[in-house]
UniProtKB/TrEMBL annotation, chain A:
Record's protein name: ABC transporter ATP-binding protein
Record key words, sorted: ATP-binding, Cell membrane, Membrane, Nucleotide-binding, Transport
Main location: membrane
GO MF annotation, one: ATP binding
Record membrane topology: Peripheral membrane protein
Length: 327, 343
């Protein structure tokens, strides 16, 4: 297994108390595999990714328990300097907003070349040649002429391609993409996602795709982990989850996708708000918003049940997964 | 197995916030961020909009415009900058080569001519000791400019290093440094100068410069801290970190160029105030001491005779006023150019 996150807990110590952002997350990604992590704002999906990358702000953040095994090695036990060498070289991250993720005062060629200077100790000249090669690879036209330009001179899609090029520069084994297409136009979204998927296949990388956009997920992901209030509430292969969700929250997410055959009807929305992480409701965290909630949901926290019915394993953290799956 | 249900994503649902991370920031640093916000530069939005004019941004032949080239572009067209720049250039030239425009010796005095007014060859007249006021005014520029420039350099370097490190690393060091700056802010400058400099006997400019650096660094340190905290929160710093940049690389390459503008602005404006502070301290008798030629000393020695020989005071005072004004105007122009929000 390329990456295995085991029972990860992350807390943020704030003035108002301890916000439990991640409460026992388990997931794994293999080489060449794509895991989509799905969830609302504040569900802990980005925080988990930041913990894996080791770019969590500590303090106020704190990893209170768990293991992050990367190629069998626990990253949390590494020294910061060793950890830094892993970042960029073996795992890299693509951020949501490429404009703000690129330094406005440094030309894109220099920023791309920096990867080779930092990790490979290349000279300025060699790294510039590498930068042009990378820009070609992510299909930026006229790479040679544009290598000296600044981020604001590129369009949104081109900037995201540059971010992808930066992340892929050293051919890492794992890529974490934190909502890589959210800031882009729908047409450009598809191009960027295709490019990412293609390069992933080519380099046989593991990809963790963090998103709240179910449309992006269906085409590229192998499996999906749905997060709610810092826990994984459902984990399943991508096709099964669309066919029959085993958790009311996943069902709510799927129902709130606008569809052409629903034109004129009111769009479904999950009622209520995501829970305050300073005071997660007792029992199942989703119970105040759940249409299927019973008394037991308000008192007992559901474990992650094994709900496998086909050869591929899947899991759901709902007391009534059977009703949900077959209802 | 049936195909997965089709669906059309029409738009993204809501915004992925980082609510948790932002609640973690403390009130104190929030304040500092707000402080820096007014001076803090934005990734040049106007420039981005300009560039977005053509498809895929500008053509390859168009010269790249960064914040700095934009600022320079603005400055060259700003009359305030041109006028103050010319005055400062002139001051710098005469402080390096005063003999270019003044042939006499500022210490060559003839008591028999004391307090006499303008004469051929001595356009500004003579002072109380019979020295040529014109020569002394020209030579005084050297002291004022060197005190101003050196004190500003010292303050800017010390303040931005200490403040920058505090902002970058945060934690206990930041808390400690912030309290120290509070202590220094509480010291009244003139009173502090009277106390500290009255025990110094050296007649060089160094004790005065040292005193200004000692009292001036907290101001820059605060600004540098605030702007580093703001720059640190930018996504590209996080992105650099995620791609394996070390602390020193992040600071030097990603944070410093994006945090240095407010420091430059405040330092340029402070330069003028340091020149007038030198004159103030010299006037009070604790700054520079004769035989150093300084406008402050000359103003001080001329002030008892203002009624019968006003020229002795007005020429050095006028030179001082123009110099301070020029530096403050320059600082203003630089601030306007570096802060896109004022455009």
């Amino acid at each position: 297994m390329l990456l295995e996150v085991r029972d990860l807990h992350v807390e943020f110590h704030t003035r108002d108390g301890v916000a439990k952002a991640v409460n026992g997350v388990n997931y794994s990604v293999d080489a060449g595999e794509t895991l989509a992590v799905l969830g609302e704002s504040g569900s802990g999906k980005s925080v988990t990714a930041q913990a894996v990358m080791g770019i969590l702000d500590i303090p106020p953040g704190k990893i209170s328990a768990g293991e992050i095994l990367f190629q069998g090695q626990d990253l949390l036990k590494l020294k910061e300097e060793e950890r830094r060498k892993v970042r960029g070289a073996k795992m890299a991250m693509i951020f949501q907003d490429a404009l703000s993720s690129l330094n406005p005062v440094i030309s894109v060629g220099d920023q791309l070349g920096e990867m080779f200077q930092v990790h490979k100790g290349m000279s300025r000249k060699d790294s510039k040649a590498k930068a042009i090669e990378l820009m070609d690879r992510v299909r930026i036209p006229a790479a040679k002429e544009r290598v000296g330009q600044y981020p604001h001179q590129f369009s949104g899609g081109m900037r995201q391609r540059i971010m992808i090029a930066m992340a892929l520069a050293l051919e890492p084994e794992l890529i974490i993409a934190d909502e890589p297409t959210t800031a882009l136009d729908v047409t450009v979204q598809a191009q960027v996602m295709d490019l990412l998927a293609e390069l992933q296949r080519e380099l046989n990388m593991g990809l963790i795709l963090i998103t709240h956009d179910l449309g992006v997920v269906a085409d590229v992901a192998d499996k999906i982990a749905v997060m709610y209030a810092g826990r994984i509430v459902e984990q399943a292969p991508v096709h099964e989850i669309y066919k029959a969700p085993a958790h009311p929250y996943t069902r709510g997410l799927l129902d709130s996708i606008p569809r052409l055959d629903q034109k004129g009807q009111e769009l479904y929305a999950i009622k209520g708000l995501p829970p305050n992480l300073l005071a997660i409701p007792p029992g199942c965290a989703f119970n105040p918003r759940c249409p299927m909630a019973q008394d037991v949901c308000r008192t007992d926290e559901p474990p992650l049940y094994d709900v496998t019915e086909s050869p591929v394993p899947r899991a759901s953290a709902c007391h009534f997964w059977k009703e949900c799956l077959h209802g | 197995m049936p195909e997965p249900e089709p669906f059309e994503p029409l738009e993204s649902y809501g915004e992925e916030g980082r609510a948790i991370a932002s609640t973690g920031a403390g009130g104190a640093s929030d304040l500092a961020t707000a402080e820096a916000e007014t001076l803090e530069q934005r990734p040049s939005v106007d420039a981005a909009e300009e560039a977005a004019g053509g498809p895929e941004g500008a053509g390859p032949d168009k010269k790249a415009r960064s914040l700095w080239s934009d600022a320079w572009h603005d400055l060259r067209r700003n009359p305030v900058f041109i006028i103050s720049g010319l005055i400062i250039l002139f001051l710098v030239v005469i402080s390096i080569w005063p003999s270019l425009i003044a042939s006499g010796d500022p210490l060559d005095c003839d008591l028999s001519k004391a307090q006499e007014g303008s004469q051929p060859g001595h356009p500004f007249g003579f002072n109380g000791q019979g020295c040529d006021v014109y020569t002394r005014t020209v030579y005084g520029a050297r002291t004022s400019v060197s005190v101003g420039v050196l004190a500003t350099l010292g303050v800017a370097i010390l303040g931005s290093i200490l403040g920058g490190l505090a902002g970058f690393f945060g934690g206990a060091w930041d808390g400690f440094l912030s309290r120290i700056t509070d202590v220094f802010f509480a010291i009244p400058v003139v009173l502090g100068g009277l106390v500290l400099l009255s025990v110094v006997t050296s007649s060089t400019v160094w004790p005065v410069i040292g005193f200004m650096v000692l009292l001036g660094w907290p101001q820059i340190s605060r600004i540098a801290r605030g702007s580093v905290i703001t720059a640190k929160q930018h996504d590209y710093v996080q992105a650099a970190r995620a791609l394996g940049a070390s602390n020193s690389r992040m600071m030097l390459r990603h944070i410093t160029p994006n945090a240095v503008a407010p420091v430059i602005v405040v330092a340029t404006i402070a330069l003028g105030t340091y020149i007038s502070l030198e004159a103030t301290l010299s006037y009070l008798g604790v700054g520079l001491k004769p035989p150093t030629v300084s406008w402050g000393i000359d103003i001080s020695s001329a002030s008892p005779y203002i009624r019968n020989a006003p020229h002795m005071l007005l020429w050095p005072a006028g030179a001082l006023a123009i110099t301070v004004l020029a530096f403050i105007m320059l600082g203003d122009a630089v601030r306007d150019a570096l802060d896109p929000k004022l455009r």
